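In the current project phase, the collection of sequences with tokenised folds has grown. A representative record is quoted in full directly below:
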Amino acid sequence: MARLVSGVYQERHGAGAILVSQTLFNQELLEQLRSSAWNKSREDKSRSYMQWLDLLCGEYGFVYTSLKTHIEALEVAELLTAEDAMWKERLAKSRVWGTLVSPPEVTLPIPVEDEFHVPWPSCFVESRLFSLSEKVPRRTLTGPVYRMDGKTMLFEGEELRICHDQTLLMVLLMVSGKKPCGALIECSLQAFETTLGSSLAEAGMALHDIERTLWRLSNCRLIFEEYGFDGPLLVYADAGSVPAHFKFAFNPAFAHFYYPILKLFSRMQK
């Protein structure tokens, strides 16, 4: 007799003796079961392929669909554990990234009109700079960003996603206030959540999402010659005091997305 107990496949032999072997729930197991079900369905027509597959999966306490879902969940959990370990190592090295620019290098402020309209750069709308993907771990990207207008935009760094990088960047734009791009901005968690319009938990986010997004935005390189932009989105980020507050500074060239004439001025100064 065989049964699954807490992820361990147990077999009984002889006078009640139990031999325990750890079952590896992975894609290889699924492939073996599919192959066996296919062979049995050809040899014994009394059951269909799927019926044989469910029968074989039943030896592990599942039908095929539930075993497949279980294995996928285990794989995601394993990847998330590896990702958390990677972030623990990253944040242990430093929680401050980039360098503040000198006062002469700051440009113009982001044109925040009111508390209801995010001043999102129109040139971002036509691109896939922020992806819809939810797979883990995130990809490290190097190369062109798809744009509907065909203009050349390049990105290097860890993949940016709509959830939650784009959302958090939108909040950073809003809390920047009247400060010029390149200037240091300090934001408390309370002010951040007020601007967000809810608590992080209500928005489906955690404190580590702030830290990780700050890292991505300051450890990337966006090249968009159309606007004279070449560098990280944030030239400085300090997550050392999270959750109380954090600090950041936009790349001075970020203002080019709102004031294209600045591209000409920056070229004249070089």
